[in-house]
Amino acid sequence: MSPILNITGATKRFHTPDGKSVTALDDVSLRVEQNEFVTLLGPSGCGKTTLLRAISGFEGLESGAIEIAGSPVTHLPAHKRPVNTVFQNYALFPHMTIAKNIAYSLDVADTPKKEISERVGKMLDIVGLAGFGDRKINQLSGGQRQRVALARSLIAQPKILLLDEPLSALDKNLRHKMQQELKSLQAEFGIAFVFVTHDQEEALTMSDRIVVLSDGKIQQHGTPEDLYRRPKTEFVARFVGESNLFEGHVVEASSQNALVQIGNGQKVSINKSGLREGVKVKLLARPEDLSVGHNADREGLKFKAKIDQLFFVGADYQILATTHDGLAIKATLRPSAQSRDPIGSPRSEIEFFIDKEALHVIAAEAVHE
Amino acid sequence: MISSKTNVDRRRIMLLGLLVPPTLFLLVFFIVPLTIMVIYSWLEPGLYGGVVWNFYDLNYGRILGWADSRYEKFDPVYLAIFFKSVRLALTTVLICLFVCYPAAFWISKMSDTKKNLFLFLVTLPFFVSLIVRLFAWVLILRPTGFLNQALMGTGLISEPLQIIFTDTAVIIGMTYVFIPFMFLPLYASIEKLDMSLLESSSDLGATRLQTFRRVILPLTLPGIIGGSIIVFIPALGNFIVPSLLGGAKVLMIGNLIEQQFLSARNWPFGSALGMIVMAAILVLLVYYVKMMTREDRLARTPSIKEVQ
C-alpha cells in the first residue's frame, strides 16, 4: 500500500535579519503509513515544527516534494490540504461556542445545518464533552480545550492529523490521561497521526515510530525500542532516555565480534560486525542495565565507584556515582522483592556491573550497516 | 481593635482627600454648565440676548416640528443640518476605518522598533496646532493650491477642481484630524489578535475571505466600534473643520450651535440644539456599553470543572 504521507528531499532555509541563513530542514525524507502514529522528536530549533508546518501548508519548501495519499500537495495552500492541525496553544476561536468551534470546518464548507449538528453532537460525545456545546472557550479548562481542539480537527475527516506539542501546556497527570486518549482516538479514527514533541518520554510512550531530528536532519527513525536500545548516534542516545556513554576504541575485530577497550583500560568483547580495528566508539549502557556486585559467570564491565547522590523514587533508586577513574555513572536500581534494604547511601562505595549483552556500540564516525 | 479602627479611619480620610478635588472639578466645570444648558434650553430667549424666565418648549419645537406660529412656520432646516452633520460624520468614520484598518494590521506585524516609530508618526500631528494644520489643508485644496497645481501639471485636469468650501473638503479635513483617534483603538484590538487563529482557520479549510469574515472581523469588532464612536462623537459636533474648510457654504450642527451662542445670542436655542446632539450621542453610547457588558458577562461566567 502506498504511504499516506511521502516527503522527499524537503529543504527549507530561514533568513535572519542580520543576513545569515538558518537551515531548518536539510534534505528530509519521510514516509508515514496509513494508521501510523509517528512522532517527530527533537530539541527546540531542530526543525520538527517546520516540518509539521510544511506538511500543513504554512511553510513553503525551497526544494523537495510532499505527497498526501498519493497526490502532490507541495504547492497547495493550507486550506486545500486534507490534513488538520492541533496547535500548541489550541488556537480555538474565543468568540465562538464550543459547538461553533467544532463545526468550523463544516461551516466554511457550507455543509447542511442538519448534518453539522449531527456530526458535532457525535464528536462532542467522542471527546467526552457532551452537553458542553453552548459554552464559550474561556469557560473551559486546559484539558477540555485540548479535547475541543482535537474534535475540531477530527471532524474535518483529515487524512493525517498533525499535532504540534499539544500536551505541553497540561500538568503531568492530565498529560498522561490525554496521551492515552490520543492513542485510543487514533485507533478509533484509523488515520495517521504526526505528533511533534520535545519530550522523549512522551514520544516513547505514544509512538509507533519516532523520527529524531536535529539541526534540520533526520538523525534516526525507528520504533521506540529501536531508538532506545539501538541508537545510531551519540545524539540520539543522549536525547532519548538516560544514558551512560563510555569512550573507547576497537582493539581487535573479527567478522562477528569486536573487542573494545574503554578509557580505563577494561576490555570487553561485543557481539557486533562491521567494525574496523582502531575505530573510536562509544559504549552505551542505560541506567537500568547496571547492577550491583560482580557476577563472575558473565563477561562485562565492572566499575568501583562512590555514590554522589541517591534518590528514592518509589519503585527504584536512582544513583549518581563517580568511578575511581573519574567517570560519571547513572544507575537505576530496583531492590529485590525479598530484601527492601536501601541499596547504599551517599559517599558509600559501590561496585557496578554491566553485562556485555546490555552494551550497545555507537561508532564515533557513522557506521554503515 | 483600636489601632485597626483608626487605620480604617485614616484610609477613609485619605480616600476622601483623593476624591474631593476631582469631584469638585467635575461639579464646577461639567455638571454646572450642563445644568445651565439643560435649563436654558427650556427658557424663552430674550429679545436682545439673555433669557426670560418662562417655561418655553418652542426651542425644541423649532428644531423638531412645532414652531412659534406668531413669528415663523416650521422649517425643517435644522433637522436637515443635523442629518447632514450625521452624514458627514459617518462618512468620516467610514473613510477613517478603511484607511486605518489595513494600516493597523500592517503596523502590528512590524518589528518592535518599527512599530514604535510608526505609532509615534501616527500621534505626531498632535504636536502641531489643529488650526495651523487645517490652514495647511486650505493651501493644499484651494484652486491655486498644491493639489490642483499638481493635477494640472500632470495634465489630468485642464481647470482647477473646486474642492475647498465643499462637503468633500470638510470630509477630507475631518478624516485627517480624526485618523489617529480611529487608529489607536483599532490598533489595540488588532495587536491583540492571535495570529495562530488565522492559521487555524485556514487549516480548517477556510479561504482568506472566510477567515476575515468569521474570525478577524468579529475579533476586532470592539476596536472597530470603539474607534468609530470616538471619531463619530467629535466629528458630529465639529465646527472648526467646517468653518475653515467648508467656509460659508457648509454648515454643520456644530457651526449652528456656535452661531447661536456667539452671533445670534440665542442661548436657549443653542442649548436646545446642543441637547439634541447630546441625546443622539447618548443613545449611541448606551448601545455600545450594553453590547460591551454583554460580552463581559459571557466572558466572566465561572468555568466548569474538568470532566472526568
UniProtKB/TrEMBL annotation, chain A:
GO terms for biological process: putrescine transport. It is an enzyme of class 7 (translocase). Its EC number is 7.6.2.11. It holds the Pfam family TOBE_2. Keywords: ATP-binding, Cell membrane, Membrane, Nucleotide-binding, Translocase, Transport. Belongs to the ABC transporter superfamily. Spermidine/putrescine importer (TC 3.A.1.11.1) family. PANTHER family: SPERMIDINE/PUTRESCINE IMPORT ATP-BINDING PROTEIN POTA (PTHR42781), SPERMIDINE_PUTRESCINE IMPORT ATP-BINDING PROTEIN POTA (PTHR42781:SF4). This is Spermidine/putrescine import ATP-binding protein PotA. It comes from Ahrensia marina. The gene is potA.
From TrEMBL, chain B:
InterPro entries: MetI-like, MetI-like_sf. It is found in: Cell membrane. The chain crosses the membrane at residues 12-43, 77-105, 117-141, 161-188, 215-233, 269-289. Keywords: Cell membrane, Membrane, Transmembrane, Transmembrane helix, Transport. GO terms for biological process: transmembrane transport. Pfam families: BPD_transp_1 (PF00528). GO terms for cellular component: plasma membrane. It is a multi-pass membrane protein. The keyword Chaperone does not apply. The keyword Secreted does not apply. Residues 82-288 form the ABC transmembrane type-1 domain. Its main location: membrane. Belongs to the binding-protein-dependent transport system permease family. CysTW subfamily. PANTHER family: INNER MEMBRANE ABC TRANSPORTER PERMEASE PROTEIN YDCU-RELATED, INNER MEMBRANE ABC TRANSPORTER PERMEASE PROTEIN YDCU-RELATED-RELATED. This is Spermidine/putrescine ABC transporter permease. It comes from Ahrensia marina.
